[in-house]
Amino acid sequence: MRSFVFLTLICCFNIGFEKALGKELTLDIIHINDIHSHFEETSHESSRCRDGSELCVGGVARIYAKQKEIRDRNPDTTIFLNAGDFYQGTVWYSKFKYQPVVEFGNRLNYTAMGLGNHDFDDQIAGIKPLAEQVNFDLLASNMVVNSDEFVEGVHFKRSVVKEINGTRVGIIGYITQMTEYNFPENKIEFTDEIESVKAEAEKLAADGVEVLIALGHSGYEIDVELAKNIPLLDVVVGGHSHTFLYTPMGEDDIPEDRIEGEYPTYVTSTNGKVIPVVQAYCYTKYLGHIIVSFDDQGELLQPVEASGVSFARPYLLDDNEIKPDPETLEMLVRYQVNLTEYKTVYGYTETAMTQAYLDSEEDNIGNALTDSMADFYEDATISLINNGGIRTGFPEGEISGEDIFMVIPFQNTVDRLKMKGSEVKKALEVAAEKLVPNDPAKYPGFGLQVSGLKMVIRPEQDNIGNRIVSIQTKNLETDDYEDLEMDKVYTLAVGSFMVPKKNARYLRGIFDFVEIEEHIPGTVTDYEIFKQWLIKNTPINPQVEGRMTFEWQTDN
User: Fold this and answer.
1) What is the number of other CB atoms lying within 10 angstroms of the CB of residue 414?
2) What is the DSSP code (8-state) at residue 307?
3) Is the pLDDT of residue 469 over 60?
4) Taking a C-beta distance cutoff of 8 angstroms, is the pair 421, 484 a contact?
5) Do 381 and 325 sit in the same domain of this protein?
6) 357 with 409, same domain?
7) Is 50 exceeded by the pLDDT of residue 17?
8) pTM for the whole structure
9) Are residue 177 and residue 198 in the same domain, yes or no?
């Protein structure tokens, strides 16, 4: 892209980044993000595939077949990038940890992988074996490691440079700062993504690297900010927010998933340069593919939207697009035969349980999960779960252990908190602070599902701290709802992910600024609790029942 050039003109000199003369390059970039251990194909809703492969999507066998098809066309000028969160999300990770990630990661033969927050869910001990056994580099430029267990240059790199047809291509990693929740003792610290990627980009440019790609796991909004603020970049490949980007080809081109931006999203940087940003949803449902062309100075051909980017598409990985690779399917079998215990059916739902369209909306799957948590403790009046802890839904029909793991895969314990009603309201007001008046769809929204509560929430410009205009709790003896008493002490059942902890500023954090009378850590996981509740109550038929009502302002 740019090199560090020392120019001497008469008696003066100027030091700066100048263009490095290379070769023209057309580069195929294949990319994926947030696999979350979805090695097998899934339904279109990312739950267990129940209807046969012809109606299901994704899985590593389809990924392998599609990436091979693309690579075989241009083997010398194609790279395959993974933007993080290969770990965690199904029973495969809970049972086998890093082993299938190593095996199938090596088969997919990524060019590089940006580390994700869930790749550190088992801290250094969980990621170190992967780093030592895969055939590709793990990247993150904004990690400061305070431990000799995980070493830069050995287990991960800030960036990697690949020479492709005479052009040096630099790939710079980044990871969300929220990953600090996995390291309360600060064994690894996570610095600002923009500052870190910029510094690494300047270093690589000074070394004469012509093309720079940012590959990371901080979410779509950060991806866009990177492109805006670092003109040295040429392409940003992101993950973490599970964002579906898509550009329809016409009025009849209507995808089944909600479009959250164009694919690619063209971002104008601070110096006027146009930089494409891409992301490919999650759970192996889509595989992104963008073809970019550079001149001999490492700049995208102009105009970028036509010449610089000649092809851009996220492939829906169904049987219409690509058939699963038979050899990869066979590799799955030796793991599948050790998962039979999770095929056991524990109950039946008479209605499909789905996640709400918005993050500020009640849904029936959240109601079922929180009801199971509250039921576990006899004295629990209220229970809460964060939306991000619910990964998919249950279709109508049988529910197996595997199904439950796909919905709540993180094996959080359910903890007990005791606090006064005034502190409960204060905590919920922290969640309500995130609401944007007039914009129900704005992330992160309220972000919670609840049991034992009925609330009316009215977000206005000037009422932060007082947005919950009505709040009632369930009387455990009568099942009636009554006003929350400010001085009464209530028992809450809450997933351990949400409880106060050091380094929690990027989590929900609703309990970090309230007074808690007592915190009793749980010893049973949310998986076991929901399983036992399902066995006891099957068949279930959860409904949306007015636990949260949002009164949105309307523009006149």
Assistant:
1) 25
2) I
3) yes
4) yes
5) no
6) yes
7) no
8) 0.91
9) yes
